[in-house]
Structure formats: C-alpha cells, structure tokens
Amino acid sequence: MAEDRPAIPEPIKREVRQQCCFGCAICGMPFFQYDHIEEYADVQEHTADNLVLLCPNHHSAKTTNKLSKERIKAAKKQPFNSTRPHTSGFQVEPSQELLTLLGNNVVSGWYPNGNGDHHPVWINGKSYFTIHSDEGWLSVSLQVTNVRGDILLALVRGELMVATGNWDYVYEGENIKVRAGLGDIILDMNLSDTKVEILRGMFLDRTIDGYVIKDDTLITLCEGQPRGWDIGCSAHANGFGGWGLLNKKTSPDVQTPSGFGFFRSF
Ligand SMILES: [Zn+2]
Question: Quick one: DSSP state of residue 86?
Fold first, then answer.
C-alpha cells in the first residue's frame, strides 16, 4: 500500500532532477513532482531510471491515463530542458502585498493602487531586482547570480526560470535552493506570490560589483572587495530604488537616478 512505501532517497531525487534538467520532462516547468514511470506497486523500488519529473498538470494527465508511459519514457531520454540554457517558466502570481527581504534588510511600503517600478537592487545602471506595480498589483523581476556574475535563476514579471547548467535546484514548499555541489548552497530563498526573501545569494555583474547576502547581512562588493555591510536596514519602496551601487571607473557614463534608500559609489 502507498502508506508503507519508503520515501525516495534524496540522492536518487537529485539524480532525477539532474537527468531532467530541473523541470517537467514534457514541458520544462521548474515546479514539479516525482513520478514512477512504471508504478511503484509493480516495481517495489525507487530507481532514478524509473523516475521522472512532471509538473502537476502532466503528472495528473499521466495518472488519469491521458498521457502514455511511452511518451514519458521518450521525454525522459530527451527532457524538454535538455537543449535549453534555462528551464521554461513557472508563473508566480501578482499580489497586493509583498514582503521583500534581503538578509534581514527589508523593502517596506508601497502606495496603494500605485503604478510604476521600484528597484530594490541596482548595479551600474542595471536593475537586478525590480518590483513592478500595475494598479497596485505587484510582480517581481530579478536575476540572482553566482560569484562570476552568471545568472543562476531569474524571475521575469513573476515568471520563474532556472539555469539548466546548475548542479542542483529544488523548490519545496516556498523554499528554493540552488547548489553548486554537495553541501554547497549558493542560493537559498523563499518565493511565493506574497514573499521574496533571500537568505543567501548574490547579485553580481561581470566586474564583480554588487551584493552578497549571507548571515542576515547585505554585503556591498566593488570589484570583488567588500565595501559595506547592511544589517537590519529598511528602504522605503516609494523611492526609485533600495540599494544602489555605481563603480565610476568601469561605468563612467552611467547617470544615477535619485531616490535610493542606500547608495554607494566608488
Ligand atoms: Zn509539464
């Protein structure tokens, strides 16, 4: 019976995630469940070769016999995301309230029914984190990077996409983790329609200007060197931006908008 079934061991789940490139084998969506291609009741074991990632839609189609095992077996051999640099999208819905945390630094407030963009993270003329308000409905665009400035994961007006070159990615409950190797968490964030909380992660450009978040702290880097530490700060979303950084040496032509909560230039 299903209740007596042991849980799928974590190393096997990770192998399946890697085989399926972090998305549904059929459509690539980075919100997925683990499906036994041949029923567990028949095979009585968990093996990576008999497991596949399916989004809730395609999982339901399979369990109700609208989607054949043959199609899924073919998709497992060549998953949708396998030839793409990033997964297809999972849409996080807009919300009228959004809790935004960078470590324990908070972006607070928003004019109700407002329109326009606020930029919690802005680096050398480019927004790495934007809150869009459309008649008071808030959606998020952001891109988090590794230490070299490669994008690990992006949101585009709420549409979540994950780089397929990552070593591992999970989205369980509201928590996302991206790992660069066993035990090496490079992104730890909570994401839902009402929350963007970055516990650990980076926003860095190619010159390694930007921000690293860890241990509740937002650390400002200029050309890879730590130059500022923010803990427990609050930036009001009615201004242009939250945290801004300008490297005048590498970006001499960038005009800085006014209205940041915290701005550093070097
Ligand atoms: Zn799917």
Answer: B
CA of residue 58 to ligand 1 center, whole Å = 5
> What amino acid occupies position 6?
P
At CA 124, angle to CA 160 and CA 226, rounded to 5?
90
The CB density around residue 240, as the number of other CB atoms within 10 Å, is 19
Q: Which has the closest alpha carbon to 218: 101, 131, 140, 99?
A: 101
DSSP assignment letter at 134? E
The amino acid at 240: F
Judge whether 35 and 59 are in contact, CB under 8 Å: yes
- 21 Cα to the center of ligand 1, angstroms: 13
| Residue 88 CA, ligand 1 centroid: distance in Å | 10
Measured CA to CA in angstroms, residue 139 lies from 67, 170, 253 at distances of: 33, 22, 30
Q: Ligand 1 centre from 178 Cα, in Å? A: 21
Q: Where are the domains of the chain?
A: 2-83, 95-265
Q: Ligand 1 center to residue 53 CA distance, Å?
A: 8
What pTM was computed for the model? Answer: 0.94
Helix (H, G, I), strand (E, B) or coil at 233: coil
Structure tokens at 62: 């399979």
Q: Residue 54 belongs to what H/E stretch?
A: strand 51-54
Q: Locate 158 and state its tokens.
A: 């709420």
User: How far does residue 56's CA lie from ligand 1's centre (Å)?
Assistant: 7
What tens digit of pLDDT does each residue of 137-194 get? 999 999 999 999 999 999 999 999 999 999 999 999 999 999 999 999 999 999 999 9
Q: Is the dihedral of CA 161, 157, 223, 238 positive or negative?
A: negative
Tokens describing residue 150: 């490669």
